[in-house]
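Changelog note: in this version the structure field was regenerated for every chain. One regenerated record is shown below for reference.
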Amino acid sequence: MAHGYLVIMGNEKVDVYSAGVETHGVNPKAISIMEADGIDISGHTSNHLDEYRNIEFEYVITVCDHAKERCPWFPNRAVLFHENFPDPARAKGSEEEVHKAFEHTRNLIKTYCREFINQHINI
């Protein structure tokens, strides 16, 4: 979700790479909740961070404590940021309750990405 917002809010002038410490595929509910906000992430892939070891990043953002704890040190000057968003894929309950969990996390990520772009990226 963050990848989708950062690309759009960065006016496609920023290179965004998205990876995890594990690969699980892109959750269909995440695709749906982002589509409801006008952003298509259906073409995104679930990449492992090892794929990007040779890229000199300016910023690295971890979006959950699990990733922060397992994210390796990148041997460059990347500034590290961390925000622990709730994982909506772990939500339990009715379909409506799970939908609300995805919507809640999406909205938190949207706000974070807007603030990040405004504070750190010269557009």
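Spot check on this record: Helices lie at 2-9, 28-35, 65-70, 95-120. The chain has a mean pLDDT of 89.
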